[in-house]
Design a protein that fits this description.
Length: 327
């Protein structure tokens, strides 16, 4: 790709910051827009312009010099979305609507949207494909699906070129060429791999296993884990694949599932630390298996994950977790 100029909303967060690193390393100009409500100023890559602001106010900064927008700014905690749905409709849907309006007014006609597997809800088949029914079971998934539908209408009516990427479980960390590492630093943390690593670090006593009687090989839930650097590479490919008036939806995952106990055992092997487990009751709405088919991404984006190994994903996440603890 020739050098372009991109706006990355939510670029101080986990996935957005890794994508911003990849864009800069590919020679592009990057502006990060983030209100730092959940992102971190330290997560913004050196070399990116930073604007502290809300996506709802994107019209203040978006102008025709931008070639595209990569949109990561959203509230993303499932539990919180159930307790505070109004926050999710305002931030995720209201913010995205404002962004689409700002893009239309500025003549910026390309968008890559950070969507989610939560749009599917309880899977009707495994692996999940883009043609499977969308039936979200929480407001977070519902708001992301609403934005996907909003984008489809914008493409049909106004010629926007857009790709929505539906992630499964993103994990790992990225060591940028600049020497800076980018990884998960959510507060509170809710993702399995960093939680298990907290036990290995000694900052958490034990890891809770929510149910061991699922219809899976070891009785614990199975999930599809994708390395954050693989995810970032898919975003760069999506920029090339977006076509005017078209809205492409792609699942992103490894196509392989790992159980909760497999993740815990992998952390034990990688870190060399004991990881005590505590068995807890099942969580409501936890499907037994969530695994993606990434066949569409392979066919339309030319994308295949190059880091599918769980031990490699955990190793990178462990390096980042130790680095954070030392600082």
């Amino acid at each position: 790709m020739s050098a372009k100029k991109y706006l990355v909303t939510g670029g101080a967060g986990y996935v957005g910051s890794v994508v911003a690193h990849h864009l800069l390393e590919a020679g592009h100009a990057v502006t990060v827009l983030d209100d730092l409500s959940t992102g971190f100023r330290a997560g913004v890559p050196e070399g990116a312009e930073f604007i502290e602001g809300r996506v709802q106010d994107a019209s203040k900064w978006l102008d025709p010099s931008y070639d595209a927008v990569l949109h990561f700014a959203a509230s993303s905690q499932v539990g919180e979305s159930v307790a505070r749905p109004e926050k999710y409709w305002a931030n995720n849907v209201g913010g995205s609507m404002a962004l689409l309006g700002a893009m239309r007014d500025a003549g910026v006609r390309k968008l890559v949207f950070s969507s989610t597997a939560a749009t599917y809800g309880e899977p009707v088949s495994t692996p999940i494909t883009e043609s499977d029914p969308t039936a979200p079971t929480n407001p977070y998934g519902a708001t992301k699906l609403a934005v996907d539908q909003m984008i489809a209408g914008e493409c049909a009516a106004h010629g926007l070129a857009a790709v929505s990427l539906r992630y499964f479980n993103v994990a790992g960390a990225y060591a940028a060429r600049s020497g800076v590492s980018a990884g998960e630093r959510h507060d509170p943390e809710s993702h399995l791999i960093p939680l298990v690593l907290q036990v290995a670090l000694g900052t958490r006593e034990a890891i809770s296993v929510y149910g061991d009687d699922y219809p899976t090989p070891d009785g614990t839930c199975v999930r599809d884990y994708i390395h954050v650097a693989d995810l970032a590479e898919a975003h760069l490919r999506a920029l090339d694949a977006a076509t005017p008036g078209g809205h492409l939806i792609c699942n992103l995952g490894n196509g392989n599932g790992f159980s909760v106990r497999e993740v815990i055992e992998t952390v034990r092997k990688v870190t060399g630390h004991p990881v005590p487990e505590v068995l807890a009751e099942r969580r409501a709405g936890d499907p037994a298996v969530l695994v993606a088919s990434a066949a569409t991404a392979h066919a339309r984006l030319g994308w295949t994950p190059s880091r599918p190994d769980l031990a490699g994903i955990v190793t990178d996440a462990w390096a980042f977790a130790r680095e954070r603890q030392q600082h």
